[in-house]
Each structure stands twice: as structure tokens, then as C-alpha cells.
Amino acid sequence: MDKSVISNPKSHYGSGKLATRHFITQRLTGALGIAFTIFFIWLVVRLAGADRAEMLAVIGNPFVAIVTALLVINVCVHMRIGMQEVIEDYIDDPRLHSLTMLLNNFFCLAIAVIGVLAIAKIALWG
């Protein structure tokens, strides 16, 4: 970016409210990620050495299934915002910027939907 644009105090870089929302959301999903990591470690240790039937029984527990689905959603939201920041920082071409933002949103949504549907399948139908 041109140095004269950066040094001009009247330059506009986007919505301050949107940036604040992304900042807060990124921090909240990061903090929730710590709690979800503790749960995930418990889940992996619990399922270590378990056979398929026991694994299906544990994942089929409504509490475990819901928390695991929330973990997937949390990670996808955190990933979407993080990648959005990278795209905004490094992609300057407006057409390429729009395309990469669209692909980022689609990819994160697809991962979240596939993950939640996989958990639902295991929890509901084994």
C-alpha cells in the first residue's frame, strides 16, 4: 500500500465496528477452544483402546455429541475469522479478494456442516 495513503489520517480502512466484532469473536472462540481442548483430550483418552461399539456408545451420549458438535462449530468460526484476516492483509486485487473471501466462507461452512452431520450420524444412527 502507498505510504501516503497510510500516513493520511483521513484514510478509511473499513468498518471499525466490524473489526471490533471480529476481534472479540476471535478471542472468544480462542478462549472456548481451550475449554474444548480439555474436553477433546478427555474424549481421546476415554476412547483410547476402545472398540467400535464402545466408541459409538460414548459419541452417542447426547452431552458428548452436543459438545463435540459445538467444538467443530467453534473451530470453524475461529478458522474463518483467522483466514479472513490473512486474506485482508495479503490480497490486494479486489476481484481476487472477493473470490478468496467467498471460498473461505464456503470452505469453513462446508467443514462445519460435514463435521456436525458426521457427529449427528454417529449419535443418532450409530
Automatic annotation (TrEMBL):
Any one GO molecular function term: metal ion binding
InterPro entries xref list: SQR/QFR_C/D, Succ_DH_anchor, SuccDH_FuR_B_TM-su
Membrane topology value: Multi-pass membrane protein
Gene3D superfamilies, per the entry: Fumarate reductase/succinate dehydrogenase, transmembrane subunit
Pfam families, per database record: Sdh_cyt
The organism's taxonomic lineage, starting at the top: Bacteria, Pseudomonadati, Pseudomonadota, Alphaproteobacteria, Hyphomicrobiales
Cofactor: heme
Entry keyword annotation includes Transport: yes
The organism's place on the tree of life at top rank: Bacteria
Quaternary structure and partners: Part of an enzyme complex containing four subunits: a flavoprotein, an iron-sulfur protein, plus two membrane-anchoring proteins, SdhC and SdhD.
Subcellular location: Membrane
Function: Membrane-anchoring subunit of succinate dehydrogenase (SDH).
Gene from which this protein is expressed: sdhD
Any Gene Ontology CC annotation: membrane
Full protein name: Succinate dehydrogenase hydrophobic membrane anchor subunit
Pathway linked to the protein: Carbohydrate metabolism; tricarboxylic acid cycle
Annotated GO biological process: tricarboxylic acid cycle
Keyword annotations of the record: Electron transport, Heme, Iron, Membrane, Metal-binding, Transmembrane, Transmembrane helix, Transport, Tricarboxylic acid cycle
